[in-house]
Amino acid sequence: MQRLISSHLAVGHRLTTSWLGKVERAGFPAVEIFCARQHFDYRDSLQVADLGHWFRDSELKLHSLHSPMFTDEVWGRSGPDTHVNITERGKVERLHWVDEIKRALEVAETIPFKYLIQHLGVTGQEFSEYSIDAAFNSLEELQNFARQRGVEILLENTPNDLSTAERLELFNNMTHLRLNYCFDTGHAHLGTGVQHEFEIMSSHIRSTHVHGNDGKEDSHLFPLAEGDTVAWPDTMKLLKSRPGQYPLMLELRDYGTHSNPLDEAKRASEQLLEI
Q1: CA atoms of 104 and 275, how far apart (whole Å)
Q2: What is the C-alpha separation between 146 and 108, in angstroms, rounded?
Q3: pTM beyond cutoff 0.90
Q4: For 3-274, which CATH superfamily applies?
Q5: How far is CA 145 from CA 98, 151, 179, 190, in A?
Q6: Domain spans of the chain?
Q7: pLDDT, tens only, 112-167
Q8: H-helix segments, 87-231
């Protein structure tokens, strides 16, 4: 199983070619870039071009982009109108967010990547048929736009009533989109459990987000770190049950406790594969 890493580890800082070089030297063959505008501004043609030149000369590959969740530079704290939500009931608002995600997809014209990781709704959102209908309309348009750029959209299990494993399956069964999945271990642990969600999603998992937490807060802990209550032996047995179907993508948060977070991430990934 390939060990990859998300730039979520450095999401509080502007993404630079220097940081990507450190990822490459740490031995990760590919990376996921997190679309947060304080980190990677997908609308900034200069930043996109700079990274594009670097990737063309590097062995490091861009595996995926995480679709934008907010349009501000402070994780949506500047107001609810900055929360990207493709399930908005109003057509004008929904199309506004579809356009925002299209700007992220256009990065593939400069830096090719395989997957766009997409959330349905926002944290804590309740289920409704209106939301399902809006999500279908949004994703039908986005799927066509993505395919033209060689990108596949993956839906991620997230902490809301629209995006549990059961609800993602319901969405796929109610529509003709048949989207594949990004399986998030931390989000599953916060919800109905890693094993339960994995078994529902397993045949359609194409990528992962691997991180731990205490079962209460989505803290993106390094696996096996203090406070992490994910049952990693059982989790890794599940993840290893489908070799070659998806990578082990670490999506971690840097709390400043490690002098070299990338080396610590590499060590953690090696520990997981040895379990």
Answers
A1: 36
A2: 9
A3: yes
A4: Divalent-metal-dependent TIM barrel enzymes (3.20.20.150)
A5: 10, 9, 14, 32
A6: 3-274
A7: 999 999 999 998 999 999 999 999 999 999 999 999 999 999 999 999 999 999 99
A8: 91-105, 129-147, 165-174, 185-190, 194-201
